[in-house]
Protein backbone atom coordinates (compact mmCIF):
# COMPACT_ATOMS: atom_id res chain seq x y z
CA UNK A 1 0.00 0.00 0.00
CA UNK A 2 2.76 2.42 0.98
CA UNK A 3 4.63 1.68 -2.24
CA UNK A 4 1.51 2.38 -4.33
CA UNK A 5 0.92 5.75 -2.66
CA UNK A 6 4.59 6.69 -3.11
CA UNK A 7 4.44 5.84 -6.80
CA UNK A 8 1.28 7.89 -7.23
CA UNK A 9 2.91 10.88 -5.54
CA UNK A 10 5.96 10.51 -7.77
CA UNK A 11 3.77 10.33 -10.87
CA UNK A 12 1.84 13.42 -9.76
CA UNK A 13 5.06 15.33 -9.05
CA UNK A 14 6.41 14.45 -12.50
CA UNK A 15 3.14 15.55 -14.12
CA UNK A 16 3.20 18.87 -12.23
CA UNK A 17 6.78 19.37 -13.37
CA UNK A 18 5.69 18.76 -16.96
CA UNK A 19 2.83 21.26 -16.66
CA UNK A 20 5.23 23.86 -15.25
CA UNK A 21 7.62 23.29 -18.14
CA UNK A 22 4.94 23.64 -20.82
CA UNK A 23 3.53 26.77 -19.13
CA UNK A 24 6.98 28.34 -19.04
CA UNK A 25 7.55 27.34 -22.66
CA UNK A 26 4.34 29.03 -23.80
CA UNK A 27 5.24 32.17 -21.83
CA UNK A 28 8.74 32.28 -23.32
CA UNK A 29 7.42 31.76 -26.84
CA UNK A 30 4.84 34.54 -26.50
CA UNK A 31 7.08 37.11 -24.80
CA UNK A 32 10.50 36.42 -26.29
CA UNK A 33 9.56 34.80 -29.61
CA UNK A 34 12.08 32.02 -28.94
CA UNK A 35 11.62 29.21 -31.48
CA UNK A 36 11.08 25.75 -30.02
CA UNK A 37 10.10 26.88 -26.50
CA UNK A 38 6.50 25.71 -26.81
CA UNK A 39 7.53 22.47 -28.53
CA UNK A 40 9.98 21.71 -25.73
CA UNK A 41 7.22 22.25 -23.18
CA UNK A 42 4.72 20.04 -25.00
CA UNK A 43 7.26 17.23 -25.42
CA UNK A 44 8.15 17.50 -21.73
CA UNK A 45 4.47 17.34 -20.73
CA UNK A 46 3.81 14.28 -22.90
CA UNK A 47 6.91 12.58 -21.53
CA UNK A 48 5.81 13.33 -17.96
CA UNK A 49 2.38 11.80 -18.64
CA UNK A 50 3.81 8.63 -20.20
CA UNK A 51 6.47 8.21 -17.51
CA UNK A 52 4.00 9.12 -14.76
CA UNK A 53 1.63 6.37 -15.83
CA UNK A 54 4.48 3.86 -15.82
CA UNK A 55 5.64 5.06 -12.40
CA UNK A 56 2.11 4.71 -10.99
CA UNK A 57 1.98 1.14 -12.31
CA UNK A 58 5.45 0.45 -10.88
CA UNK A 59 6.86 -0.41 -14.30
CA UNK A 60 10.03 1.72 -14.07
CA UNK A 61 13.17 1.04 -12.10
CA UNK A 62 14.22 3.47 -9.39
CA UNK A 63 17.19 4.48 -11.51
CA UNK A 64 14.98 5.42 -14.46
CA UNK A 65 12.66 7.39 -12.21
CA UNK A 66 15.58 9.38 -10.78
CA UNK A 67 16.88 10.05 -14.29
CA UNK A 68 13.44 11.29 -15.42
CA UNK A 69 13.22 13.70 -12.51
CA UNK A 70 16.80 14.88 -13.07
CA UNK A 71 16.12 15.68 -16.74
CA UNK A 72 12.84 17.39 -15.83
CA UNK A 73 14.48 19.54 -13.19
CA UNK A 74 17.29 20.54 -15.59
CA UNK A 75 14.76 21.56 -18.25
CA UNK A 76 12.75 23.48 -15.65
CA UNK A 77 15.88 25.27 -14.43
CA UNK A 78 16.81 26.19 -17.99
CA UNK A 79 13.37 27.61 -18.69
CA UNK A 80 13.42 29.35 -15.32
CA UNK A 81 16.62 31.11 -16.39
CA UNK A 82 14.93 32.21 -19.64
CA UNK A 83 11.91 33.52 -17.72
CA UNK A 84 14.24 35.40 -15.37
CA UNK A 85 16.08 36.88 -18.35
CA UNK A 86 12.79 38.02 -19.86
CA UNK A 87 11.74 39.55 -16.55
CA UNK A 88 14.96 41.58 -16.50
CA UNK A 89 14.18 42.76 -20.03
CA UNK A 90 10.91 44.42 -19.06
CA UNK A 91 9.75 46.82 -21.78
CA UNK A 92 11.17 50.31 -21.42
CA UNK A 93 7.99 51.91 -22.75
CA UNK A 94 5.07 49.47 -22.32
CA UNK A 95 2.47 52.16 -23.07
CA UNK A 96 3.23 54.04 -26.33
CA UNK A 97 0.98 56.96 -25.38
CA UNK A 98 2.89 57.42 -22.12
CA UNK A 99 6.27 57.87 -23.81
CA UNK A 100 7.76 61.23 -22.78
CA UNK A 101 8.48 63.60 -25.64
CA UNK A 102 9.88 67.07 -26.22
CA UNK A 103 8.86 69.40 -29.03
CA UNK A 104 9.91 73.01 -29.45
CA UNK A 105 6.78 74.43 -31.03
CA UNK A 106 3.58 73.32 -32.72
CA UNK A 107 3.93 72.58 -36.46
CA UNK A 108 2.25 74.78 -39.02
CA UNK A 109 -1.35 73.97 -39.88
CA UNK A 110 -0.18 72.56 -43.19
CA UNK A 111 1.56 69.68 -41.41
CA UNK A 112 -0.62 69.20 -38.34
CA UNK A 113 -2.28 65.99 -39.56
CA UNK A 114 0.97 64.53 -40.90
CA UNK A 115 2.79 65.28 -37.63
CA UNK A 116 0.09 63.65 -35.54
CA UNK A 117 0.18 60.53 -37.68
CA UNK A 118 3.99 60.41 -37.65
CA UNK A 119 4.03 60.94 -33.89
CA UNK A 120 1.88 57.85 -33.37
CA UNK A 121 4.14 55.85 -35.69
CA UNK A 122 7.23 56.87 -33.72
CA UNK A 123 5.66 56.11 -30.34
CA UNK A 124 4.59 52.67 -31.52
CA UNK A 125 8.05 51.92 -32.92
CA UNK A 126 9.75 53.03 -29.72
CA UNK A 127 7.56 50.66 -27.71
CA UNK A 128 7.60 47.75 -30.18
CA UNK A 129 11.38 47.78 -30.66
CA UNK A 130 12.08 48.52 -26.97
CA UNK A 131 14.26 51.52 -27.81
CA UNK A 132 15.43 53.79 -24.98
CA UNK A 133 15.14 56.95 -27.05
CA UNK A 134 14.44 58.30 -30.52
CA UNK A 135 14.75 61.68 -32.12
CA UNK A 136 12.99 62.52 -35.38
CA UNK A 137 12.97 65.53 -37.68
CA UNK A 138 11.28 66.19 -41.02
CA UNK A 139 12.27 68.80 -43.56
CA UNK A 140 9.73 70.10 -46.07
CA UNK A 141 9.43 73.29 -48.06
CA UNK A 142 13.13 74.00 -47.56
CA UNK A 143 12.98 74.10 -43.76
CA UNK A 144 12.56 71.88 -40.70
CA UNK A 145 8.80 71.31 -40.52
CA UNK A 146 8.78 69.11 -37.43
CA UNK A 147 11.24 67.89 -34.84
CA UNK A 148 10.57 65.92 -31.66
CA UNK A 149 12.46 63.81 -29.16
CA UNK A 150 10.97 60.67 -27.59
CA UNK A 151 11.95 58.53 -24.63
CA UNK A 152 15.17 58.55 -22.63
CA UNK A 153 18.65 59.74 -23.57
CA UNK A 154 19.84 57.95 -20.42
CA UNK A 155 17.78 55.17 -18.83
CA UNK A 156 19.31 55.21 -15.37
CA UNK A 157 18.89 58.94 -14.82
CA UNK A 158 15.68 59.21 -16.87
CA UNK A 159 17.27 62.00 -18.89
CA UNK A 160 14.76 62.85 -21.66
CA UNK A 161 15.56 63.18 -25.34
CA UNK A 162 15.41 66.90 -26.02
CA UNK A 163 15.57 68.56 -29.43
CA UNK A 164 19.21 69.51 -28.94
CA UNK A 165 20.21 66.06 -27.63
CA UNK A 166 22.98 64.77 -29.87
CA UNK A 167 23.30 61.17 -31.04
CA UNK A 168 26.32 59.33 -32.39
CA UNK A 169 26.24 58.82 -36.14
CA UNK A 170 28.70 55.94 -36.36
CA UNK A 171 29.45 55.09 -39.98
CA UNK A 172 26.88 57.71 -40.99
CA UNK A 173 29.72 60.19 -40.43
CA UNK A 174 30.86 59.39 -43.95
CA UNK A 175 27.78 61.17 -45.34
CA UNK A 176 29.10 64.45 -43.96
CA UNK A 177 32.70 63.69 -44.84
CA UNK A 178 31.76 62.96 -48.45
CA UNK A 179 30.13 66.40 -48.71
CA UNK A 180 33.35 68.02 -47.55
CA UNK A 181 35.34 65.99 -50.05
CA UNK A 182 32.99 66.97 -52.90
CA UNK A 183 33.42 70.62 -51.99
CA UNK A 184 37.19 70.35 -52.28
CA UNK A 185 36.93 68.37 -55.51
CA UNK A 186 34.80 71.11 -57.03
CA UNK A 187 37.47 73.60 -56.05
CA UNK A 188 40.09 71.41 -57.67
CA UNK A 189 42.15 71.02 -54.51
CA UNK A 190 41.26 67.39 -53.95
CA UNK A 191 41.59 64.86 -56.74
CA UNK A 192 40.42 61.31 -56.36
CA UNK A 193 40.69 58.50 -58.87
CA UNK A 194 37.47 56.94 -57.60
CA UNK A 195 34.32 58.16 -55.83
CA UNK A 196 34.30 58.45 -52.05
CA UNK A 197 33.55 55.05 -50.58
CA UNK A 198 32.30 54.12 -47.14
CA UNK A 199 35.30 53.61 -44.89
CA UNK A 200 35.22 50.26 -43.10
CA UNK A 201 36.68 50.14 -39.59
CA UNK A 202 37.10 46.84 -37.74
CA UNK A 203 35.40 46.87 -34.33
CA UNK A 204 38.57 45.38 -32.88
CA UNK A 205 40.85 48.05 -34.34
CA UNK A 206 43.42 48.85 -31.62
CA UNK A 207 43.03 52.56 -32.32
CA UNK A 208 39.71 52.45 -30.47
CA UNK A 209 41.94 52.30 -27.40
CA UNK A 210 43.85 55.44 -28.35
CA UNK A 211 43.19 59.16 -28.42
CA UNK A 212 43.98 61.23 -31.48
CA UNK A 213 44.21 65.01 -31.48
CA UNK A 214 43.92 64.78 -35.26
CA UNK A 215 42.00 62.04 -37.17
CA UNK A 216 44.17 59.38 -38.75
CA UNK A 217 41.70 57.69 -41.12
CA UNK A 218 42.68 58.10 -44.77
CA UNK A 219 39.75 60.24 -45.96
CA UNK A 220 40.01 62.72 -43.08
CA UNK A 221 43.75 63.03 -43.61
CA UNK A 222 43.30 63.59 -47.37
CA UNK A 223 40.72 66.33 -46.77
CA UNK A 224 42.95 68.04 -44.20
CA UNK A 225 45.87 68.04 -46.62
CA UNK A 226 43.75 69.40 -49.48
CA UNK A 227 42.09 72.06 -47.30
CA UNK A 228 45.32 73.19 -45.70
CA UNK A 229 43.77 73.12 -42.24
CA UNK A 230 42.74 70.54 -39.64
CA UNK A 231 39.95 68.27 -40.82
CA UNK A 232 37.50 69.15 -38.04
CA UNK A 233 38.11 72.87 -38.47
CA UNK A 234 37.39 72.58 -42.17
CA UNK A 235 34.19 70.62 -41.60
CA UNK A 236 32.93 73.10 -39.01
CA UNK A 237 33.71 76.20 -41.06
CA UNK A 238 32.87 74.96 -44.55
CA UNK A 239 30.13 72.34 -44.08
CA UNK A 240 28.35 72.66 -40.73
CA UNK A 241 28.23 76.39 -40.01
CA UNK A 242 26.95 77.50 -43.45
CA UNK A 243 24.03 75.05 -43.08
CA UNK A 244 23.23 76.02 -39.51
CA UNK A 245 24.29 72.61 -38.18
CA UNK A 246 25.16 73.99 -34.78
CA UNK A 247 24.74 70.71 -32.90
CA UNK A 248 27.05 68.67 -35.12
CA UNK A 249 30.66 67.96 -34.15
CA UNK A 250 33.13 65.12 -33.70
CA UNK A 251 34.06 63.19 -30.60
CA UNK A 252 36.70 64.86 -28.49
CA UNK A 253 39.90 63.01 -27.70
CA UNK A 254 39.32 63.70 -24.00
CA UNK A 255 35.71 64.51 -23.10
CA UNK A 256 33.68 61.42 -24.02
CA UNK A 257 35.68 58.93 -21.96
CA UNK A 258 37.23 60.89 -19.08
CA UNK A 259 38.11 57.80 -17.05
CA UNK A 260 39.80 55.97 -19.96
CA UNK A 261 37.44 52.97 -19.77
CA UNK A 262 38.67 50.29 -22.16
CA UNK A 263 41.94 52.13 -22.82
CA UNK A 264 45.51 51.43 -21.66
CA UNK A 265 45.16 54.09 -18.94
CA UNK A 266 42.13 52.37 -17.40
CA UNK A 267 42.17 51.65 -13.66
CA UNK A 268 43.40 48.33 -12.30
CA UNK A 269 40.84 45.45 -12.23
CA UNK A 270 40.29 45.73 -8.47
CA UNK A 271 39.38 49.41 -8.84
CA UNK A 272 37.00 48.53 -11.69
CA UNK A 273 35.23 46.08 -9.34
CA UNK A 274 34.85 48.87 -6.77
CA UNK A 275 33.57 51.25 -9.47
CA UNK A 276 31.05 48.88 -11.04
CA UNK A 277 30.07 46.71 -8.09
CA UNK A 278 29.94 49.20 -5.23
CA UNK A 279 29.96 52.84 -6.33
CA UNK A 280 27.65 52.54 -9.36
CA UNK A 281 24.73 50.93 -7.43
CA UNK A 282 25.09 53.71 -4.85
CA UNK A 283 24.77 56.38 -7.51
CA UNK A 284 28.47 57.10 -7.93
CA UNK A 285 30.96 55.33 -10.13
CA UNK A 286 32.20 56.25 -13.56
CA UNK A 287 31.80 59.42 -15.54
CA UNK A 288 31.03 58.62 -19.15
CA UNK A 289 31.08 62.04 -20.79
CA UNK A 290 28.89 65.04 -21.65
CA UNK A 291 25.19 64.88 -20.82
CA UNK A 292 24.42 66.62 -24.12
CA UNK A 293 25.22 63.37 -25.96
CA UNK A 294 22.78 60.47 -25.61
CA UNK A 295 24.07 57.39 -23.83
CA UNK A 296 24.63 54.52 -26.26
CA UNK A 297 23.10 51.11 -25.51
CA UNK A 298 23.44 47.71 -27.14
CA UNK A 299 21.08 44.69 -27.05
CA UNK A 300 21.76 42.54 -24.00
CA UNK A 301 21.35 39.36 -26.03
CA UNK A 302 22.09 39.05 -29.75
CA UNK A 303 20.88 41.84 -31.99
CA UNK A 304 17.34 42.41 -30.71
CA UNK A 305 16.73 45.30 -28.27
CA UNK A 306 13.43 43.67 -27.33
CA UNK A 307 15.42 41.18 -25.25
CA UNK A 308 16.79 43.99 -23.10
CA UNK A 309 19.51 46.60 -23.48
CA UNK A 310 22.67 47.47 -21.62
CA UNK A 311 25.08 50.37 -21.73
CA UNK A 312 27.75 50.08 -24.42
CA UNK A 313 31.27 49.95 -23.09
CA UNK A 314 32.95 53.28 -23.90
CA UNK A 315 35.32 53.43 -26.81
CA UNK A 316 37.07 56.44 -28.27
CA UNK A 317 36.37 57.33 -31.90
CA UNK A 318 38.57 60.41 -32.12
CA UNK A 319 41.01 58.67 -34.48
CA UNK A 320 38.19 58.08 -36.99
CA UNK A 321 36.46 61.48 -37.18
CA UNK A 322 35.54 61.30 -40.85
CA UNK A 323 34.60 57.65 -40.63
CA UNK A 324 32.74 57.22 -37.35
CA UNK A 325 33.20 60.03 -34.83
CA UNK A 326 30.53 62.61 -35.69
CA UNK A 327 27.48 63.17 -33.54
CA UNK A 328 24.49 65.27 -34.53
CA UNK A 329 20.74 65.83 -34.21
CA UNK A 330 18.04 64.84 -36.72
CA UNK A 331 17.30 68.55 -37.29
CA UNK A 332 20.91 69.16 -38.32
CA UNK A 333 20.85 66.11 -40.58
CA UNK A 334 17.63 67.34 -42.20
CA UNK A 335 19.30 70.69 -42.94
CA UNK A 336 22.16 68.77 -44.49
CA UNK A 337 19.78 66.59 -46.52
CA UNK A 338 17.81 69.58 -47.81
CA UNK A 339 21.03 71.17 -49.07
CA UNK A 340 22.70 68.06 -50.47
CA UNK A 341 19.88 65.68 -51.45
CA UNK A 342 21.87 62.93 -49.83
CA UNK A 343 20.88 60.14 -47.49
CA UNK A 344 22.01 56.91 -45.90
CA UNK A 345 22.32 54.95 -42.67
CA UNK A 346 24.85 54.87 -39.87
CA UNK A 347 25.98 51.95 -37.72
CA UNK A 348 27.81 51.49 -34.44
CA UNK A 349 29.38 48.14 -33.52
CA UNK A 350 27.51 46.52 -36.39
CA UNK A 351 24.02 47.85 -35.62
CA UNK A 352 22.07 50.70 -37.20
CA UNK A 353 21.63 53.84 -35.09
CA UNK A 354 20.50 56.45 -37.64
CA UNK A 355 18.91 56.97 -41.03
CA UNK A 356 18.64 59.99 -43.29
CA UNK A 357 15.99 59.55 -46.00
CA UNK A 358 15.42 62.02 -48.82
CA UNK A 359 12.50 62.21 -51.24
CA UNK A 360 13.78 64.73 -53.82
CA UNK A 361 10.63 64.59 -55.95
CA UNK A 362 8.54 65.71 -52.97
CA UNK A 363 11.12 67.92 -51.29
CA UNK A 364 10.88 65.91 -48.06
CA UNK A 365 13.80 64.82 -45.87
CA UNK A 366 13.51 62.61 -42.77
CA UNK A 367 16.15 62.16 -40.09
CA UNK A 368 15.82 59.45 -37.43
CA UNK A 369 18.40 58.76 -34.70
CA UNK A 370 18.38 56.31 -31.78
CA UNK A 371 20.69 55.61 -28.85
CA UNK A 372 20.61 51.83 -29.14
CA UNK A 373 22.31 49.76 -31.83
CA UNK A 374 20.22 47.56 -34.13
CA UNK A 375 17.32 50.01 -34.13
CA UNK A 376 15.25 49.79 -37.30
CA UNK A 377 15.57 53.50 -38.06
CA UNK A 378 15.30 53.07 -41.83
CA UNK A 379 11.86 51.47 -41.74
CA UNK A 380 10.72 54.09 -39.25
CA UNK A 381 11.98 56.86 -41.55
CA UNK A 382 9.99 55.32 -44.40
CA UNK A 383 6.81 55.27 -42.31
CA UNK A 384 7.27 58.88 -41.23
CA UNK A 385 7.90 59.82 -44.86
CA UNK A 386 4.64 58.16 -45.87
CA UNK A 387 2.78 60.44 -43.46
CA UNK A 388 4.33 63.58 -44.96
CA UNK A 389 4.29 62.50 -48.60
CA UNK A 390 0.51 62.23 -48.86
Question: How would you characterize the overall build of this protein?
Answer:
With 390 residues, the chain is an alpha+beta fold. The chain folds into two domains: 2-88; 96-255 and 290-388, Beta-lactamase (3-Layer(aba) Sandwich). 44% of the residues lie in helices and 15% in strands. Strands 1, 2, 3, 4, 10, 11 and 12 form a seven-stranded antiparallel beta sheet that branches. A three-stranded antiparallel beta sheet has the order 5-9-6. A hairpin with a 2-residue loop joins β10 (344-348) and β11 (351-359). The chain is elongated, with a radius of gyration of 27 Å. The termini are far apart.
Write the topology of this structure:
Layout: H1 2-32, H2 37-56, H3 62-88, E1 101-103, H4 112-129, E2 133-140, E3 143-154, E4 159-160, E5 167-168, H5 173-187, H6 218-227, H7 231-240, E6 249-250, H8 269-279, E7 297-299, E8 309-311, H9 321-325, E9 326-328, H10 330-340, E10 344-348, E11 351-359, E12 364-370, H11 377-388
Antiparallel strand pairs: 1-3, 2-3, 2-12, 3-4, 5-9, 6-9, 7-8, 10-11, 11-12
Helix pairs in contact: 1-2, 1-3, 2-3, 4-11, 5-6, 5-7
Oligomer type: single chain
How many distinct beta strands?
12
- Examine the secondary-structure arrangement and name the CATH architecture of the largest domain: 3-Layer(aba) Sandwich
Order of helices and strands: HHHEHEEEEHHHEHEEHEHEEEH
